[in-house]
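Lab notebook, bench 4. Still working through the backlog of constructs that have no structural model yet. Next entry is a single chain of 69 residues. Request: give me the structure tokens for it.
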Amino acid sequence: MTPAITFQKAVKEPDLGEDGIARAVIGKKEFAIVRKGGSFYGMDGICTHGGGPLGEGTLREGMLVCPWD
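Model written out:
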């Protein structure tokens, strides 16, 4: 049996402009939300190299860059 998929609101669309990045916490999990090309993308909010908060990062050549980089 396939587990049910649930969705959770993370940010309000007007609050995140094009090429915008936001930090979202859902339960105990932190996410980085990126708006690029009119689409929204969500990913783990903690950088794997040093534990930096990706929701405070920047976009560089279409890549989300850790603020601690």
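Notes after review: The two ends are 42 Å apart (CA to CA). The chain has one domain: 16-65. Flag for follow-up if needed.
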